[in-house]
Amino acid sequence: MAGSAAVKASERRAEHILNDLLISQGWDLRRPPQGNVLYQHEYRAYTELMEPLLGASKTASGPGVPEAIIVDRSTIEPLAVVEAKRSSEEIAKALDEAQSYALAFIQNGYNPLAIGLAGTSDEEFALRVSKWNGTKWVFVTYDRNPINWIPTLEDLGRISIPRGPAEIRPTIPPPEVLAERAEEINRLLRESDTKDEYRPATVAAIMLALWNAKGEIRRDPRYILRDINDSCRDAFIKAGKSDLAKSLRVDEANDKLKDKARRIARILERLNVTVLTAEHDYLGQLYETFFRYTGGNTIGQYFTPRHIARMMADICGVTKDDVVLDPTCGSGGFLVACMDRILVEHRLSRQQMVSLVKTHLIGFESEPVTAALCVANMILRGDGSTGVHRNDCFTAPSFPVGKATISLMNPPFPHKKTDAPAEKFVDRALEGLVHGGKMAVILPTSLLVKKDKGVWRRTALAHNSLIAVCELPNELFQPFASATTSIVFFEKGVPHNERRKTVFVRLNHDGLTLKKSARVYRPNEPNQVPDAIDSILNKKTVPGFSGAVSIKGKMEWAVGAYIPSAPPEDEEVHTGIDVLLRRHASFYTRYAPEIIAQREAIKEGDLVVEPYRKALSSIRLATAFKLPSEEGTIGGFFDIFYGMKELHSREGIAPGRSLIISPTEEYNGCYGWLDFRHLVEPPFITVASTGSIGEAFVQLEPCAVNDDCLILLPKKGQKVNLAQMFIVAATLQIEKWRFTYGRKLTPSRIAEFKISTILESWVSEKLKALHSVIDASLAPYQPTKTDQRNDEDDTDYKLAQKRLDEIERNPKKIIRGSVLKKRLAKLER
């Protein structure tokens, strides 16, 4: 019995290793159709798998039972057969039995690989993969050596063909897999009491050490951290960067990390860190991905996503003849993007690339750990000897003044008043360029729009040309930051001629979307990067996406100011209307008692409702009449005014029964209920000009509107129905991307927005449903007929009491008084 229990325990440990290997390569462990893996007897539920294995037992009688079968989840076609053994010394036997099972499938028209797994210890196991080439079994290899990982689905598709090649290169697992592994590493580092700011360096040190030592690092807790530091130091020395040899290391005194480092090393090994060569960019991409997920902004920097860095290199047209400068190189993303572009454009070997970049790629990074991370990034790509300087770009004697032909950078955003502002980095990078050199720099939107930065913008144009500005997706730097940024492109030394058009582009979709704290590619996610490059290089104007206009002086550089409006797409309006209706419904559900109370106060005369124009001065009316009013635009349908100055500050105004609208996105813009007598007659549209800028709502209830909101009133003589109002509000929501805290939403800036009435009938039907929701929300709080009668009696009682008091002060009306006394007595009953 004891022996049987030991065998079962060994099988569970082998299955654990198998699962870990499968997950690392992106396989879904669930059964089809959700997943790709069938364990042992599970295959018997599928006739197409069971029949080939009849009589394929290891004992030559009965059905075979492999450890696992990897299948195509939709067709149940066997892609690989796995057999496991307890001891790593039994790898040949494991592979032989896997081949026997796989051959049974091959004889039935399939082409699965055979995978042998032997060993139950994470430190001591062996794995071999083979394929049937039509006449015999051959190893699947990488760099002519048998691979020791399970191929991905993509790999299997390439190598399963019998007459096809057996040599493969590793592919990067899906982003979700890397994110999960990074989360596990983060947990392990957290459990080892490794502070946030040290985690990127710790992961990078382990990764570089494993790669440099080809995995030959002792796993004993007494030695593992020392071996990691020794191997990491050796890698820097080999690369000629001995000054950084001690900047990237793990804390050898951390006893908790000694245990956790073993698991971190295993995770990285599962991702093939130890076997890869610099000929493949896998290592570099893996490095960047793990660094992003495990570090992010923990050392105060937001690192540029690789596809954006590559886009900047493409627009600048980097070639092998260029000298590229990054004054704030961080982990080296822009330098790597240039390497990748040059490799592809000029079809260079990695060795040719290494020789070229020694003098053609120059980076400066003052923070020692980040500089070491940058060099490690280059080492993993086969080059640690690039011109990466651990120095401040402002004071470094080696700064290449007037020598670079291209500068790419993402300067650190200042966190305190003592930090250098972004424009100072721009000026320094321009100093490093030759006359006519090109620059692409990521800048915060505030620098492009704020009035107090106007002098800098004018000075920049006096000495350089503004080629283009490309606004980046808002979530680009998430989950670490939500900064609004743009890429700005300059040509140095050529004063800006206002007749030369500057291109403005809004890159709203880059092919990635945020999922579980990681931005990942999605096949169906729009990717406007190629269109952005095309618009900039060819100066295209595409309404809603790009515009080519003249710029001069202190003018703002915000893309929202210069891209012409386009009628919103039907799908956008559909989505916008749905959001508006839900927020409307939530308002009536949340505030039903208050809405009823306000209606009663209006009926009693306690609150006054009047058209907003009556409350406006002639100057404000005249100002609105001067706004653009082109047909088919918001200005053509509506007069646009600011809200009530009396409500600019709500301090000192007591709670009451009046609905107050302010710049918020919740409950149809409702701020609350205050003691404010004058209300605006509905219906009309409100839109936040600050705060939750661009949030627009249709107001169906009388309300008072704070002056941080605009009020849109249908022009006199212009017939505008509710459906059209909702479409306009949805249009404003769609266009709110044009505005930020540094660029306010104003009447003149929204008057030219084009609107469409194509969906008017659809919206009308939606509004019928909304009215039923409103009625249902208010019904429980409406006065009943009894309540109304009691209210009338109460009013009569008060009136009768008042008149009686008057009569008692006048004895001549005593007869009338006796009548009133009877009436009061009746009312009291």
3D structure, described in words:
This protein is α/β, with parallel strands linked by helices. The protein has four domains: 2-171, tt1808, chain A (Alpha-Beta Complex); 177-436 and 449-464, no CATH class; 570-781, Adenine-n6-DNA-methyltransferase TaqI, Chain A, domain 2 (Alpha-Beta Complex); 785-828. Helix content is 40%, strand content 16%. It has a nine-stranded mixed sheet, sandwiched between helices.
Number of domains: 4
- First-to-last CA distance: 93 Å
Q: What is the strand arrangement across the widest sheet?
A: 11-10-9-12-13-15-14-16-19
- Mean pLDDT reading: 86
Radius of gyration: 36 Å
Helix segment tally: 26
The gross shape turns out to be: globular
Major beta sheet summary: 9 strands, mixed
Derived from helix and strand composition plus strand pairing, the structural class reads alpha/beta
The tally of beta strands, per DSSP, is: 28
The proportion of residues in beta strands is 15-25%
Can you give the helix content as a percent range? Answer: 40-55%
Contiguous low-pLDDT stretches (5 residues minimum) are 296-301, 812-816
